[in-house]
Amino acid sequence: MQLAENLSRLGTESAFTVMAQAAEIEAAGHHMINLGIGQPDFPTPDHIVEAGIQALKNGAHGYTAANGIPELRQSVAHYLHRQYKTDVNLDNVLIVPGGKVTMWLAILIFGEKGGEILYPDPGFPIYASAINYTGASACPYPLLEENQFAFSADDLLSRITDKTRLIIINSPANPTGGVTPIEELDKLAEGLKAFPNVAIMSDEIYSRMLYNGQKHKSILEYEHLRDRAILLDGWSKTYAMTGWRMGFSVWPDKLIDHATRLCINSHSCINAAAQYAGLEALNGPQDAVDDMLHAFDERRIYIAKAINQIPKLSCITPAGAFYAFINIKKTGLSALEMQNRLLNEAHVVSIAGTSFGDYGEGYIRLSYANSLANIQEAIKRIDDFIRNL
């Protein structure tokens, strides 16, 4: 068989590979603690589940419009207005099967041979994978520990060339837990006035996961960018709905039809009942979101303090999301070596920093989307492992 050449450029998401390895080790009789996957350990709130069940009982089991049911798109628009005091037309909202689909659509729209797309490193691995698949040049910009894993607007702007088609930003960030200060976002938005042909996709899937009273500023709040800004957000992280595969995006007028057509050509539409669950999530009680955030806050404080008491390890306190990016450089192990040895010897699942880009060497990612008791046991195992290196 003659396979398409672009398949050789398609990467993967290492977390799923490591999870499979962990399952094999656990099947052999070892108790694994999974701090690898970015998935809330909380159940989807009952009122959201009931809305999905009721939708099925009411006959919501057929096709819907490719862009999502109108009432859900309108609720997304209302939600964004509540969050950011910005007006969004429901016709610019696209409901998609998970946040990942929005980045895939955006990169397909702008990526082709001869073009360049800027993306964060360390960053979500599908950014680079999808860019490479399209034939465009994947151009990383660094997120450095000395900058609290925030991007520098000046650095990012300096990397724009006449081939740059799209910039991807992500704050709060995966895998680092870094949050870019609003002043840097403002500076980037102002600097992009000099590059009117460059689009920007803002991955804001962790927008509700901020600590110490921090506020999130959305790309939609920059009016002069609205004709070229793409918002990525969704239900997975905020409402513990990862398996429901529910994401939403906002597109400029000149891009929404292209994105919708790609959806029609790929997945047709979103699971009908899940859309009604998403409707309830946005419009119903938000107590569960607040409870989850409180638990994540307690865990992030614990994990940062505990890691910094382990010899040869260090960690800045994450400012957002539910990840800690652990500096392992003093151990002498590579990121992949540390991941594999923790997996096989300490039976703790972590993800090598290099799974998120070259700038991730010297780090591992730990997710604190697990119970405090499990995190405490994982830290004990990591401590024992490091002290016996």
Description:
This protein has 389 residues and is α/β, with parallel strands linked by helices. 40% of the residues lie in helices and 14% in strands. It has helices at residues 14-27, 46-57, 70-84, 99-110, 125-134, 153-158, 182-191, 253-266, 272-283, 287-307, 335-346, 372-387; strands at 33-34, 93-96, 116-121, 137-142, 164-170, 199-203, 229-234, 247-250, 323-327, 348-349, 351-352, 363-367.
Rg for CA atoms: 21 Å
Total of DSSP H or I helical runs spanning 4+ residues? 12
Give the helix proportion (percent range).
25-40%
Instruction: Tell me the name of the CATH homologous superfamily of the largest domain.
Output: Type I PLP-dependent aspartate aminotransferase-like (Major domain)
Number of strands: 12
**Oligomeric state of shown chains:** single chain
- What's the pLDDT, averaged over the residues? 96
Briefly, what CATH class of the largest domain?
Alpha Beta
* Backbone structural class: alpha/beta
